[in-house]
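Throughout our pipeline, every protein is held as a single compact record rather than as scattered files. This encoding replaces a full spatial description with a residue-level series of whole-number codes. The remainder of this section carries one protein's record, kept here as part of the documentation.
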Amino acid sequence: MAVSDDTGISLDELRLAARNHGMPLEALRSAITPVGLHYLLVHFDVPFVDPDSWRLEIDGAVERPMSLSLIDVRRRPEVELTATMECAGNGRALLEPRPISQPWVTEAVGTAHWGGVSLGALLREAVPADSAVDVVFTGLDRGRDGGVEQQYARSLSLLDAMEGGAVLAYDMNGAPLPAQHGFPLRLVVPGWYGMTNVKWLMEITVLEEPFTGYQMAPGYRFRQTEEEEGRPVTRMRPRSLMAPPGMPDFLTRERIVDGDDVLLEGRAWSGTAPIARVEVSDDGGETWAPAEIERDLDDRWAWVGWRFRWRPPAAGAFTLCCRATNERGETQPLEPEWNLGGYENNAVQRVSVTVR
């Protein structure tokens, strides 16, 4: 992973930014993110799949290998899951020096309602061997990353795959998956960063040894140098985001608000423990006040809403911040922790506001 010594965005990064997109932060006002606004990252190309010829292969260290059509998958009992999904590189563009990759600011997130079948139930049908340790999920998207030609593939431990509440999803927000979100079938693992949720799923392989494919190692590791092994990127750290108040300046996106009673609102989430509290600051993080939490989605894995009535002390410029703390006591830091891939940057959001 390369890093930039300046703040300029390269032509390669602009191409990535044109192919992928974040969620406009004003959409934080919606509990469920419309499909067209949900963040999207496609590592290689979008495969356009014939649903009639597509098959899901379940093989490896299992007693009952299976080859399933989409009709076979849909005949099984349907489960539903509402989950917030965030890219592991969200906030990468705010790091200095900046890692060279998809230049996310803070918008790489969304919450959707997924319909599909239970991964755990399907694996129990296949009967994994007693010696099984990992489950590999391989997508149809193919390309080169880090100099390695590959199908996109990620793994979970057998325990996480069987007991983590993962869904093999064929519906998104009540309609079949669109092509860019993984049609005809994708993996959704609640609480984990987005790279785990393999799209265009074609194969599930149970292994008797840990999987070491590129997207597991060296990809998606939290480390300081290329030589360092680092640790795997897994569950989402606590984060909160504010729906920008007032109106924006076109170029800078700085906000302009009128009046002395401003409603601040947003969303907060965590993949390690439920959100316990959200706080708001109008002085760049020097002092904090509690926000009101609204749990408007009945699912542990979905973000919560929050609201705060802000009464500016005067006209002028302010830096608004919000931070979340989960039930394990994990709180967003004021400053990001730099790492080579630009992962897990959950530092507090800063919103520049002019009160007039």
User: Anything to note?
Assistant: The two ends are 44 Å apart (CA to CA). The first strand starts at residue 3 and ends at 4. The domain at 239-355 is CATH 2.60.40.650 (Immunoglobulin-like).
